[in-house]
Amino acid sequence: MSHLFRSLWAFVFVIGLAILSSCSEDSTTTPQLLTPPTILGQSVSEISHQSVMVKGWVDGHGRSLVCWFEHGNNISYGARTPDMIVEATGDSSLVEYRINGLNPETLYWWRLVAVAGTDTVFASDTSFTTMMQSNEPPMTFTTIAPGDHNPFNFYWNGSDMDGAVVGYRWRLSDNGLSGIGEADTLGLPWNFTTVTDSLFTVSADFPAPREPGDTGPRIFFRPHTFWIKAVDNLGFEDPSPAQISFTAVTEAPEIEVHILPSMDPNPNGCLELPLPISFTWTASDSDSSPGALLEVRTLLVSLSDLGISTCLTQDEYEELDPLTAMDEGLWNEWVEYDPQAQVQPTFALGPEHLGERYLFAAMARDEAGAWTEELTWGSNVWLVEVLSD
Asked: What is the pLDDT of residues 324-344, one digit of tens each?
């Protein structure tokens, strides 16, 4: 019995060791190896001149991922999109992002990056080229303030559907009587501005026809055309500039000549005066703005230089109208006139004029180019004979 008992205990001991060994192996944990994420592919779409849609497919193998796209002009990249979180799934996932602010017609490199824990994987380097920039030209609109006298106030604005208006080019023509002609616009420069309104002073130097017996103010006019076109941020100009034609109208300025010593005009001939003799004049323009340019020119000519041997009467002067046929070069140059001046200009006859007969005249011209067309006896035209005694 003793031998059998010892054998039984030996068997139990062996079985116990086996159980203890099995328990020991179950209580020891072997670390599980995690699979790195996989990038299954990448592509681009919707390429324009300034943006692109980049896409990639990733598999985290049951792990959450952080993904982004790197991009730049070479494989050093230099720019990246914001992080995109991909939740843990048992399948592949799509990540995509629209990159904006790119330059047109430019080669860009890009790739997808996926990170899970300490595992980082990179897609292969690939590239795309942005499109050539398309551009819609800007549009322009203009208006003119009511009225027909200087100065004229123009307003304009522009719009650009795919950019921004940065300025405007304008030009202003002096049209002929028959309208806009090639001579009116040939070589006419375009001026650049960034403002959207301005005052323009234009010419009105065509004498308007007069009805018989019309004694009203002498009217001058001239048609004009104003062009304006918007310029966008790429330098494109409106191919169809806005334009508006209008007619400027003005009354001729007035000028009055006074003789010293003060005398009434003599309708029967020249005023016979001893020295000193002087002429002064005052000019005005009823329809010009305050401070507008006003010019005056004068004429002193011997009647003998006009081929006139005797003093003219008023009727003879008006019938002969010697100033109409007279050489324009006999007039003095135009000089600026100040209506507000306390002392008006004076022209004096001296000893060198003794014994001669003279015609003195003055005319005014306003900023529109209208001039005193009517040179009237005893008003802005005087005939004098300088007495030798």
From this structure: 888 888 999 999 999 888 888
pTM attached to this predicted model: 0.64
Q: Are residues 100 and 202 in the same domain?
A: no
Are 279 and 373 part of one and the same domain?
yes
Q: What is the pLDDT of residue 349?
A: 94
248, 312 Cβ separation under 8 angstroms:
no
Tokens 């010419």, residue located? 203
CB of 166 closer than 8 Å to CB of 194: yes
Of 251, 270, 286, the residue at which a domain comes to its end is 251
Query: If we measure between CA atoms, which residue out of 89, 101, 33 comes closest to residue 64?
Result: 89
* Residue that terminates a domain, selected from 102, 129, 156: 129
Confidence of residue 389 (pLDDT cuts 50, 70, 90): low
Structural tokens at position 63? 């792990």
CA 375 to chain CA centroid, nearest Å: 44
Tokens of 314: 């008023």
Range of the domain at 315: 254-386
Task: Determine the length of the chain.
Answer: 389
Placement of tokens 């990639």 in the chain: 56
d(C-alpha 372, C-alpha 383), whole Å: 19
* Count of structural domains, the chain: 3
Q: Which helix (H) or strand (E) holds 66?
A: strand 65-72
Q: According to DSSP H, which parts of 296-366 are helical?
A: 314-320
Instruction: Say how far apart CA 284 and CA 372 lie, in whole Å.
Output: 11
Residue 80 lies in a domain: yes
Tokens of 226: 């104003």
Joined together, the tokens standing for residue 128 give 């795309």
Q: What percent of the chain has pLDDT over 70?
A: 90
* Same domain flag for 378 and 272: yes
